[in-house]
Design brief:
Blueprint lengths: L2 E6 L10 H12 L3 E6 L8 H9 L8 H4 L7 H12 L3 E5 L5 H14 L4 E4 L1 H5 L1 H5 L6 E3 L4 H13 L9 E5 L2 E4 L25 E4 L2 E8 L2 E2 L10 H7 L8 E2 L2 H15 L3 E4 L9 H14 L4 E5 L7 H10 L1 E9 L3 H7 L6 H13 L3 E8 L6 H14 L3 E6 L7 H8 L26 H14 L1
Parallel strand pairs: 1-2, 1-3, 3-4, 4-5, 9-12, 12-13, 13-14, 14-15, 15-16
Antiparallel strand pairs: 5-6, 6-7, 8-9, 10-11
Helix pairs in contact: 1-8, 4-5, 10-11, 11-12, 15-17
């Protein structure tokens, strides 16, 4: 059977088990293949994102170094060489987002110096900008969209010595030719295969929540988002994969409950986090099924993310509370309604947000307001407006980020068109305390100053 080495170039150093790698590894092991992981998370001396969030004072401080350690300060390149020489992979598989692309690029080159194993690059970033990876001579295959079917077929063909040129969802390089294969059907979660967390350092399971470290499991009961916000890439995914049908799909509740129950017992979980982009896009009947089965067979506190306009129905909010929901993350983004509607293409009024937060607090569900500052054309006055609106909402916590112009978003295109950024890859993109935009009305330095002073404005 084939030996597949996954690479997790998690440069920010914030522990979390990515669903993509854990699902793909579970599928491969279920088919009899061997998997291993090279993970730089605990090699990093700085946890850039977590440290920035703590410095704002917007989150409860936790002594994470007692659990996560202070960073091994390991030589990543040397450790990568050791891993490849020890494991001897037949395939090296990278899951890549824009934040970790430049680290991944270094490891592409190093991998080719050590092993002849082909490299497959998958994840959000290769899906959005496949040409970056086509042009990289170190990358052999690029996975576009979901990889569940592709990785299993790829491993089988490698094991059996067959050509890997013609596999759905893959762009392949074959004797100088670029082959763009058709898309396979969407993954349906059937038959059920459990996530593989065994390849990860167990410190990944421990996450800070309300001032304590808790064993946290990450799961999904749906995929995709039906909305079209300008700071997100969902519009591209909807266009790219429209030939496959509805982009936003639901995992059968029974399958989700079986998986969560298994992982709860195996890893002694204390908290569940649902990765779904908009948890409450589901029908009320489905929510009722979830509540009944979750309470009966899981009965752990859980955290979701959803849109404010999905929280206007008090009955649905009460159903969440009865099921065990302890926190809801709600994307407010900006306190300025015009910016939210016209710039961000998020057509939700301030009145809807006020009602949504009121409903959550009525049923004693903790709220986290997600907001951004440093948006294109934003002024200092707009940022103060955001702070005042969050104060009015009485959110129990605030998750604040400085806007990041990710590839594939319409806001990035707007930033390039207006000269706020260059059309290139930025190594520091996505680090919460750093703005990339050069704007005449609001300097980088002022944005970063307001980021760290934001708590004082609430």
């Amino acid at each position: 059977m084939a030996r597949i080495l996954f690479v997790y170039p998690n440069r920010e150093g914030g522990p979390v088990i990515p669903l993509a790698i854990s699902i793909l590894s579970g599928i491969l092991k279920n088919s009899g293949h061997q998997t291993d992981l090279f993970d730089i998370t605990f090699m990093m001396s700085e946890r850039l994102d977590h440290n920035a969030r703590e410095k704002t004072g917007l989150v409860d401080k936790v002594d994470v170094e007692k659990i996560w350690g202070s960073g091994d300060n390991a030589n990543v390149e040397e450790e990568f060489k050791k891993k490849i020489l020890f494991f001897k992979p037949d395939l090296v598989a990278f899951t890549i987002v824009e934040n970790n692309y430049l680290w991944a690029k270094k490891l592409f080159k190093l991998s080719k110096e050590i092993t002849k194993a082909p490299i497959v690059a998958g994840g959000v970033f290769p899906t959005i900008v496949p040409n970056f990876f086509i042009e990289d001579n170190h990358v052999d295959l690029i996975c576009i969209g979901e990889g569940e079917f592709a990785i299993e077929e790829l491993a089988r063909k490698i094991d059996e010595g067959e050509t890997t040129a013609y596999i759905s969802n893959l762009i392949t390089k074959n004797n100088g030719n670029i082959i763009r294969n058709k898309f396979s059907k969407y993954y349906t979660w059937e038959p059920l295969v459990f996530q593989d967390w065994d390849i990860f350092d167990k410190r990944h399971l421990l996450k800070p929540f309300m001032g304590k470290m808790r064993k946290t499991g990450f799961f999904e009961i749906s995929r995709g988002c039906p909305y079209d916000c300008s700071y997100c890439i969902n519009h591209l995914n909807q266009q790219t994969f429209k030939c496959l049908g509805k982009y936003n799909r639901e995992k059968p509740i029974e399958l989700a409950i079986v998986e969560i129950s298994h992982m709860k017992m195996k890893y002694d979980l204390e908290l569940i986090f649902f990765n779904d982009e908009n948890f409450l896009t589901m029908r009320k009947e489905r929510l009722g099924e979830f509540r009944e089965k979750y309470v009966d067979r899981i009965n752990l506190p859980f955290y979701i993310q959803t849109r404010a306009d999905s929280l206007l129905d008090e009955e649905r909010v009460k159903m969440l509370k009865d099921a065990g929901c302890v926190t809801i993350g709600i994307g407010v983004e900006s306190g300025n309604e015009e910016i939210r509607k016209k710039l961000l293409n998020k057509n939700i009024s301030n009145a809807i947000y006020e009602k949504a937060f009121e409903n959550c607090h009525k049923y004693d569900i903790r709220t986290t307001a997600n907001a951004m500052i440093g948006l294109p054309f934003e002024t200092e006055s707009n940022i103060l407006e955001t702070a005042m609106f969050l104060k009015k909402l009485n959110a129990r916590s605030v998750s604040l980020a400085i806007f990041a112009p990710y590839h594939g978003t319409r806001l990035r295109d707007l930033c390039v068109e207006n000269g706020f950024i260059e059309d290139k890859i930025y190594e520091e993109i996505g680090i919460n305390n750093s703005s990339l935009l050069n704007m005449p009305q609001l300097s980088k330095e002022k944005i970063e100053e307001l980021y760290y002073k934001f708590k004082d404005l609430l």
